[in-house]
Structure formats: structure tokens, C-alpha cells
Amino acid sequence: MNKIIYLLIIITVAGCNSNTKQQPIAANPELATMLEDYYNERMQLLPLEATANGDDRYNDLLPADFTDSYRAKLKDFFTRYKNAIGKFDPVTLNDNDTKSYQLFTYEMDMGLAGLEVNFWEVLINRTILICHLISLSAYRFCWVRWVPGRAINLLKL
Fold this sequence. Notes:
Strand order of the largest sheet: 1-2
Helix content: 55-70%
Oligomer: single chain
Radius of gyration: 29 Å
Number of helices: 7
Largest sheet: 2 strands, antiparallel
């Protein structure tokens, strides 16, 4: 019985002292450069986010985020960086870079999905619904009057 216990102890100690150390994978400098470029360009496109992050370089900018041209810039921005991150193989990245890769891919997918929602149309539809729900007497004081197929600004009345 003692021989079996000694044998188990020797096997355990021998297994713990294995010299097969894995070399850590170095950080990918190309990925770091791409992420830095992404951050700087994102702060320029989203100056309110830059201000919230403490970056005052873009305090003089306030884009009209409801315009088609601005949304086209954002779509191009997210598409470009989604294609750029696709050039990296996550298997060859270290743990930190792999997490950055996964988060960045998720961020690009969510950015593109968010551009598919036309939020300004939702706001107009809600305003029209509120006008219908109030009453005909309050109908005249709404900013938008419903006309089949379009909305008319009541400030012109």
C-alpha cells in the first residue's frame, strides 16, 4: 500500500515539474494601429462622444445625425472597419487582442444594424399618433398634422 502512495506522489510531482512552457504571443502592432485609427476617426464622426470621453478636439463640431449624407458616412465608416478587422485571424492573436477583436467585430455589426433603423420616422409617427389620440380641439396645436402619405408643419398655418 505504501508503495502505491509513493508511486502516486512521484507521478504527481513529476507531472507538476514539466518544462513545456508556452511562449506568450506578442501583441499585434497592426491591430493596435487600426484600433487607434478607428478611435480617432470615430471621435471625429461622433463629437459628443468625444467630449464625453474628455477629448475636446472636436467641440466645434455638431453633425446633423438625421441627414442621409451623415448616415452614409457612418455606414462607410463601419463597413470599412468591419472589412479591415476581417483581415486579422483571431487564432494568431494573444488573449487581449482576441478580446479586442471580438468586441470590435460586435461593435461594427451593431453600428451597421443601428443604421438600418430610421429613428426620425419613428418620432414623426409617434407625434402623429399623439395628435390622433388627444382630440380634434387639441389637434390644431400639434406640430405635425396627419395627411395621408405625408406630414405638414402647422407653423405655416
